[in-house]
């Protein structure tokens, strides 16, 4: 019942930047974490970055130092600033939200936004 809408994807040259944004709406209750996953062609979906309720951030090793995740708790949004993009960053990026009580956590997913990085 939580709806996530992503925006900001597109085509960029290697070395360029993009900023992804995700807005959550609907029946939102006790968000524990917000983050981004990605799925490259022919590969498994992987965690890119997330930020938990206490403010701690986590990044995949492949994006550390290049990507920055941030959130606005009041607006229920999460952004992903992607700098120094590489062709291997090409993927569909999905917003993810984990919410609910500790005994009944629920994941919510956006529809995905395409990021394409050209050489």
Q: Enumerate how many helices there are, as a single number.
A: 0
Mean pLDDT: 94
- Main sheet record: 7 strands, mixed
Q: C-alpha Rg, in Å?
A: 14 Å
Oligomeric organization of the protein chains:
single chain
Q: How many runs of DSSP E, i.e. beta strands?
A: 11
Work out the helicity level. Answer: under 10%
Fraction in beta strands? over 45%
Distance between the termini: 39 Å
Please, could you describe this protein's structure?
With 119 residues, the protein is mainly beta. 0% of the residues lie in helices and 58% in strands. It contains no helices and 11 strands. It has strands spanning 2-7, 10-13, 18-26, 31-39, 46-52, 57-59, 67-72, 77-82, 91-99, 106-109, 113-118. Strands 2, 4, 5, 6, 9, 10 and 11 form a 7-stranded mixed sheet that branches. Strands 1-3-8-7 form a 4-stranded antiparallel sheet, with no helix packed on it. It is elongated and about 45 Å long.
At a glance:
With 119 residues, the chain is mainly beta.
Describe the SSE topology.
Blueprint (H helix, E strand, L loop, with lengths): L1 E6 L2 E4 L4 E9 L4 E9 L6 E7 L4 E3 L7 E6 L4 E6 L8 E9 L6 E4 L3 E6 L1
Parallel strand pairs: 2-11
Antiparallel strand pairs: 1-3, 3-8, 4-5, 4-9, 5-6, 7-8, 9-10, 9-11
Notable features of this structure?
119 residues, mainly beta, 7-stranded mixed beta sheet, elongated
């Amino acid at each position: 019942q939580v709806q996530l809408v992503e925006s900001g994807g597109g085509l960029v040259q290697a070395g360029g930047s993009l900023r992804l944004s995700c807005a959550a709406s609907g029946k939102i209750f006790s968000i524990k974490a917000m983050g981004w996953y990605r799925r490259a062609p022919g590969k498994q979906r992987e965690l890119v970055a997330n930020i938990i309720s206490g403010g701690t951030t986590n990044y995949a090793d492949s994006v550390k130092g290049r990507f920055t995740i941030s959130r606005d708790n009041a607006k229920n949004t999460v952004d992903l600033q992607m700098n120094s993009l590489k062709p291997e960053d090409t993927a569909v990026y999905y917003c993810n939200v984990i919410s609910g009580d500790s005994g009944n956590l629920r994941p919510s997913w956006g529809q995905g936004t395409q990021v394409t990085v050209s050489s």
